Amino acid sequence: MFSSANSSIFSTGSTSYSGLQPLQISNTVVKPLDDLNTSWRQGSSSSLLLNDFNPSGNIESSSALQYQSLATPQFQAAANPNPFLRSPAIFPDFNGDGKTDKIWHNTQTGENAIWLMDGTKVSSAATLPKLGPEWDFRIADFNGDGKTDVLLRNTKTGENSVLLMDGTKIASQAVLPTLDTAWTPSIGNFNGSLNTDIFWRNTKTGENALWLMNGTKATGVSLPTLDPNWTSSIGSFKGNGTSDILWRNQSTGQNAIWLVNNGKATGVSLPTVGTSWTPTIADFNGGLTSDILWRNKDTGENKVWLMNGTTPNESALPTLGAAWKANISDFNGDGKTDVLWHNTQTGENTVWLMNGGTVTSATALPTLGTSWQPSFGDFNGDGKTDVFWRNYDTGENTIWTMDGSKVTSTTSAPQLSKEWYTL
Question: 396, 412 in Cβ contact below 8 A?
């Protein structure tokens, strides 16, 4: 149940922030990426076709990107009715065909690669330029063409760059302003354009800012400062498809939402939840607004907040032991997110098909060894999320094609040596 401790992070309980001063970056001239690192020139991206795989199925070299958060969807052809579940800023789709692709990073060599997927087959593959271990990644769609782009961030120098992608090719590239390494990026859509934007949070000072993106150009907008104990997640609570920010205080258990409209943030308090609970953004009723899955890491309890704007309606869910990890996807293609539970100690798997705050079915799936780790996407474009399993001890890869709670096929994908990491 909700805690009675419901004090606000805002002095009035709900404060509208407007008239924010822009950061001094909107007139910054972006430079060709060559000026940052000549190894990132487009011409250095060599083609890696399927016949370049060796007989064992290993790629000669490649490793991983990170992504997070909800962003406004664009032009995907995938059948799922929920646009958030087909956004190229959430599930990699480099050629805009509505089928999830894979992006790889080699943690030892710095090599990178893309697989364009057609169901369980790699229809095309290509290498990307190498990056040092200090570079981090986010996926996005900065020019609104329905194809995944890449934000590069140097965690040692604070440099930032954008790669606008067209399939396996770098269509355009540019340097963005440098930010102190304490700033961390998240991807969202904060002004309702077709382009995804960047939310920046300074984990040391608590400062916050938006970069409203138009391809490779950024316009900076300041947001209010919030104590570093608060952590952020990107969701969409207004019902208009644009992004908002869910805040959680790791020390007190307080929660709040910033409803963001083109650089203006309106703060609304939510009920307080104990610090052993962790939130995950989802859409369990298909209402195209964000709901929240809460999991207690100590007790294994679970509950859902179905959100009506900023008003939560709580439903209790079954309890699962602390070793179970929740993964949000839509396995039956009804536009409502479901949950795949993976037991990190036993390798067991269970899928919950969800309808609002109700588990309509709970089905055990095949067990895999604990070296297998899942990632998710709709690889065949049927609107239903599939599961890509990678064994980080052996380098094996397997795809589960899903139809609701059934694994309709299990297909091996090309093997990569274990230092390759994928989303």
Answer: yes
